[in-house]
Design a protein that fits this description.
Helices cover 47% and strands 13% of the residues. It is of the alpha+beta class and 218 residues long. The strands form two sheets. A three-stranded antiparallel beta sheet has the order 1-4-5, covered by helices on one side. The chain is elongated. The N and C termini lie far apart (46 Å). 26% of the residues are buried.
Length: 218
Amino acid sequence: MYTNVIKNSAIPLYKNNQLILQQNFLKFIDEHIHLHGDADFFATLITARIETINYLMPHQTDNLYQCITSDYAQNINGIVALDNLDLYYIEIEKQAISLFGNILCCWAEYEHYRIMQRVIKHPLTKNSMPQLVDNNKKITEVVAQIENDTRLFITSYCALPMTLSNAIALKTIECFVKKKYCYELLYFLEISTNGEYMIHYHYKHTDLFPTLVASSHI
């Protein structure tokens, strides 16, 4: 069933824009995860793939990105079966490689997709409307529980206003996961959306919402 769905969604690139194909694929994965309650889908798939790589070629690097993208792994990813996992895992891995280059990049884009879906589905409320403050004001503060903060922020990665927890998660993906190849953080991304943080933000005279500049987990 999954193989047919994936193959049907893999329309040749000359018929569809690459971005549309990627978004449709991420939506498909999201629907699968929610339908089956499989929140650990990516972690399960990637852990199994790493184990396969290390079994067939011992003494690989401990760096997740380097291991998945190594020359040797390229001959294994999406090809060699994943032990004890259903066939649709490797079918999804194949499609992820085709659309995103590798499964890690697909996971990062999926987490980005999840954040944006939360932002889109939860519009402004009376408790999180723009605040009137002095223009160009820069503020540093400690927030005890970011998951309970109802204020809205924008970031350099997205002009849409979002809650503080979403903004921090988005910055983690863009700044550390994608730019610095720290894909290990994806296993613990939920940690970045909870707890005590020190944040630095500022208001520009052209913006209705403050821009989150930096954050640090305490």
